[in-house]
Amino acid sequence: MNTSWAEYREKLASCLCPPGDGVFTVNTAKERKLALRQQLFGTDDVQTLWLESLDALPQASQHAVILGISSDCGGGILRGANWGPLFLRSTLLEQQPAARTLDLGDVRVIPHLLHDKYLNPETISNCQKALYQDANSDYHVSPLSITEDICDGFYAHFEDKGIFGIGGDHSISYPLTKSYLKAKRARGIKTAIIHFDAHTDLLVERLGIDLCFGSWCTHILEFLPAPRNLVQFGIRSSGKPKQHWESTFGIKQHWAHEIREKGAEAIATEVIAQLKADGVEELYVSFDIDALDAAFASATGTPEENGMTPQEALTILSMLKAEFAITAADMMEIAPFTDSSLEGKSSSETTLKVGAEISAFLINAINHK
């Protein structure tokens, strides 16, 4: 990518918006948006200060940079993950202030769209007019397409930084990981994707759509050094056994019951040995909150019982961090307005608390690589 910093800075200002503004709405969660603005900027002149923060990006000492993608169009069970970036940011600031880092803002999301390849030229032109006041703009209009373009430019300009993406449904991890893997491959760095999830996300397509929350993993395999460098933890909701997924795709899985039976330390030791044998140098961690048991993470589109505990996840992450550089990550599928708890507990508060704890670990890992 041969664009100058000035051109890329203009793209950021056009395709993104201030943190928390990624959901197009008038009144819903208005107080939460105002509170986040006050915490981040302390003034009503948010747009100016946000643009100034973009100008400061080249000089920023932090390695971790937050990007929110408030889209749940790639989901399809229980919607609401589009509010994850706003609510998780607020929880991080309130409960994990030491993890504060530079924030690019949110991708500008038209909530009906997923990827530009699914749109006809007339629709793209209409959406460009709506987003950019230019029916002939060169910028993308769908969240997955915008995210990949922004991330491609980011890694071209900032080789020493990494994006912490906040979703949104898990389809968003497709452009986040694709850009990361392309950039690392171009530099000759061997990488692995560490994927926490209750589900394999290894469909080829879902109802005719190839890029969605249930298929994104399938479509990044070609960008990995080898398929086995996709390592999955916490799997338990699957119509097919572990052997099917590993033999079909060549990936590695550690199901939730295995982690309980063998212990998180033993599983992590096994994975570390595999990654070292493969010559892996850096890790991307993609964390779907439903990897955790529903008792800890019920404010999500597909909560599942018999899952991992937050401590098991953090144990595995801590052991991996001790051996490899975690250089980018994401937190997906937190849906704050959903409440599937059968015990009447505040599922949103609990889910956000553990989501913020794990997110803070990942942000700090990127910053202190």
- Work out the helicity level: 40-55%
CATH class: Alpha Beta
Shape: globular
CATH domain fold name = Arginase, Chain A
Tally of individual helices: 12
Mean pLDDT: 94
Named CATH architecture: 3-Layer(aba) Sandwich
Helix and strand pattern: HEHHEHEHHEHEEHEHHEHEH
DSSP strand content = 5-15%
Derived from helix and strand composition plus strand pairing, the structural class reads alpha/beta
Number of strands: 9
Strand ordering within the main sheet:
1-3-2-4-9-8-5-6-7
**Unreliably modeled segments:** none
Q: For the CA atoms, what is the radius of gyration?
A: 19 Å
Q: Kindly report the name of the CATH homologous superfamily.
A: Ureohydrolase domain
Q: Describe the main β-sheet briefly.
A: 9 strands, mixed
- How far do the termini sit from each other? 25 Å
Q: What number of structural domains do the residues give?
A: 1
Description:
This protein has 369 residues and is of the alpha/beta class. The chain has one domain (5-367): Ureohydrolase domain (Arginase, Chain A, 3-Layer(aba) Sandwich). Helix content is 41%, strand content 13%. It is built from twelve helices and nine strands. The protein has a nine-stranded mixed β-sheet with strand order 1-3-2-4-9-8-5-6-7, with helices on both faces. Helix 8 links the parallel strand 6 (230-233) and strand 7 (252-254). The two termini are 25 Å apart. 51% of the residues are buried. The model has no long low-confidence stretch (mean pLDDT 94). Belongs to the arginase family. This is Arginase family protein. It comes from Pseudoalteromonas fenneropenaei. Keywords: Hydrolase, Metal-binding. It holds the Pfam family Arginase.
